[in-house]
Each structure stands twice: as structure tokens, then as C-alpha cells.
Amino acid sequence: MYRAKFFMPGAARLAARLRKVVFALANSRWRACLYCFLAAAPIVFVSIQVAAWVRNIPNWDEFDVVLDFLIALDSGASAPEFVRRLFGMANEHRMVVSRLIYALMYGITGGVNFIALAVAGDLFLLGTFAVMLAMVSETAQRLRFAAIFALVVFQLQHHESLFSSCASIDHFFVLLPSIAALGVLTLRSRWSLPLGCGLGFLATFSLAHGLLVWPIGAGLLWAERRRRDLAAWSMAGGAILALFSWGFSFNEGHRLPVWTDSRKVLDYGLTLAGSSPALGNKTIAPWLGLILVISTAVVLWRGCQARARLAVATIVWCLGSMAMIAWGRASMSNDWAPVQSRYMILSSIAWALAIWLVVER
Q1: Backbone phi, then psi, for 261, in 5-degree steps?
Q2: Is 222 in contact with 230 (CB distance < 8 Å)?
Q3: 340, 271 in Cβ contact below 8 A?
Q4: Cα–Cα distance, 96 to 83 (Å, whole number)
Q5: What pLDDT, on a 0 to 100 scale, did the predictor assign at position 210?
Q6: Number of Cβ within a 10 Å radius of residue 276
Q7: Is the confidence at residue 44, as pLDDT, over 70?
Q8: Collapsing DSSP states into helix, strand and coil, what is residue 257?
Q9: Angle in degrees, CA 314, 319, 190, rounded to 5
Q10: Is the separation of the CB atoms in 130 and 338 below 8 Å?
Q11: What is the spatial distance between Cα 158 and Cα 152, in angstroms, rounded to a whole number?
């Protein structure tokens, strides 16, 4: 009896406080503050980790991609040689944008700082976040999107890209022009088409899966019945694809898949698609990836509202990019690292958008 009397006032006070919290969250101002906190906290956490752990040392591809390019510049490469190296192949990619960044840094500072490059790559991810926020028209939806996107995307599964410029400067950058190009196409202004084409060019000449912005952008224009813009977009895409394909070659060290590798490629693609929510569990990752693929296919089959087209188009771009990566990199996967960290950003963005669309229904 004594214990009951002792705990009852405490329970009543706790219940009263909980009611106050619930009523406070029901107020739009408090709810907005909560969303802002949920959006800011992951970004601050990741920023602290990057500041603590990023190092000014070359890593992996940076020996071939960065240092080799800068040595050629330092040795006094001619203008034709500079252009050849600028547009040259690197593991099935044409990394024109990142090489221009290296050349600009070298021209200004006389050297290269890998911390600055890594931070620049991380800022490209923040820029992608800002672009997607700007594309959400209603304030309440924008706040919910900010919270969901930040919680899903800004996390340490992307450690390779967050801490190493060899991944961030390309794998984070390609997100920005690709998603911005799709977003610009939905604006229906007189500048949307030329600006979208310019962004599509940047996406194409950063990483190979940036090419997918052209067919997916065409799908957006077709859904909006903008036939004249579709024709212009298709011609621009065809010209840029021809430029990309001129002199194209595969890395001889990469074994391309054959028909007997189909199951491995499919498993790798589904594992990659489900890698972000799986949190390292390679058993459930392909099943989560399958759920995402089937859900997206159902939405495309039934059709989606105009306000959701950009989000769905971005999910399709992410899934298509992961399919391209699976085809080209499945043969290099292994049991201890079934999916490389640099590729998981595509899964995170696709899942963030999928969750947001479910919340907004």
C-alpha cells in the first residue's frame, strides 16, 4: 500500500508531462522544430565524424585518377594532350568534372589536398539535399522530407565516400546534376530544357550511370505530354551519348558478365538496392531490394500523381544506376564485402524517397 501511494503521484506527474508533450507536438511550430532537429542532427553527426577522421592521403583510385593526371599537367602537357586526358576513359567512366576540379585546385594552389577534395564531395551530397528540398513545394511536406531524407541518407554506411575523395568527388557529385536535371525538367520554364541538357552533360561526364538521366528525363517529358521538348531532349541526349561512346573501352582488368553470371548479377543488384535498410545484413538485403523494385514497378504501372513524378523518377534513376553497377561490378564482389560502401548512397536515396512517398499518401 505504501509503495502504491508512493508511486501514484509520480505516475500522475509523468502522465501529465506526456500529455503536455503530445499537445505541444500537435502544435505546428513544435512539430516544425522537431522535423528541423531530425534533419540537422544526422548532418551534424556526420560532419563531426568527417572532421575527425578525414586525412590528406591518397587512397585507391586516387593514385591512377588524380596523381597520374596531375603529373601529366606538371610535366607540361599540351592542350590536345590535356583534352585527351580530360575525356579519357577510367574504368568505363569519363570523369571530366572531377578532373577539372583537380586541375583547378592544382592551378590555384600548385598541388592537391585530399581533405579539400573529400569535403567538396560531401558538399555535393548536401547540394543534392538542398536541390531536392527546393523541389518540394509545400512547407509541411518539405519539413517531413528533410527529416526523412537526413535520417536515412546522412549515416556512416557511406564511410568510403564521406572520408575519401576518390569516392565522394564522383559518387556524390553525379547525384547532384542527375537529380537536378530531372527536377529542372518538371519546371516548365523556357530555361528548363537548356539547363536540363547542361546538367545532363555534367552527369554523363562524371560517372557512367549519369547517362540514365537521358532516358528517364525522356520518360518524364512523355508523361507530361511535352512532345516538342521531348524531341529536343532526345536529340541532345543522342549527341552527348555519341560523344561519350566515341573511343569507349572497358577496363581489361574487369571481367564482364556472361549468361551464366545472370543470377549473380541479379543477386548483387537486389542486394545493393536493399543494402541501406539492411544495415549490413546480406541475408535480408536482396529481399528488401526486391520489395523496392516491385513497389516501384507497381507505381509505374498504375501511374503516379504529378507532384510525385520527380521522386519516382529519381527512384527509377537510382535503381537503374544500381542495375548498371551490378552488371559491371558483380564479378568483383566477395563474401566479406558483398557491396562496396561507395555504391550504397543510391540505395539510401531511393529508400528515403520511397518512405517519404508512403508518408505523404
Answers
A1: -90, 5
A2: yes
A3: no
A4: 9
A5: 94
A6: 26
A7: yes
A8: coil
A9: 25
A10: no
A11: 11
Whose cell is 521522386? That residue is 311
Q: What is the DSSP string of 206-246?
A: T-GGGGGHHHHHHHHHHHTT-HHHHHHHHHHHHHHHHHHHT
pTM of the model: 0.88
Helix crossing, 309-329 with 213-223: angle to 10°? 150
Contacts (Cβ under 8 Å, ≥6 apart) of 88: 94
Cell numbers describing residue 45: 553527426
Higher pLDDT, 164 or 17: 164
Q: What span, in angstroms and rounded, lies between the C-alpha atoms of 192 and 176?
A: 16
Helices (H), the chain: 2-26, 28-53, 62, 68-74, 79-86, 96-109, 114-134, 139-153, 159-163, 165-167, 175-185, 192-204, 213-223, 227-245, 262-273, 275-278, 285-302, 309-329, 344-360
| 162 burial level (CB within 10 Å; 0-12, 13-18, 19+) | buried
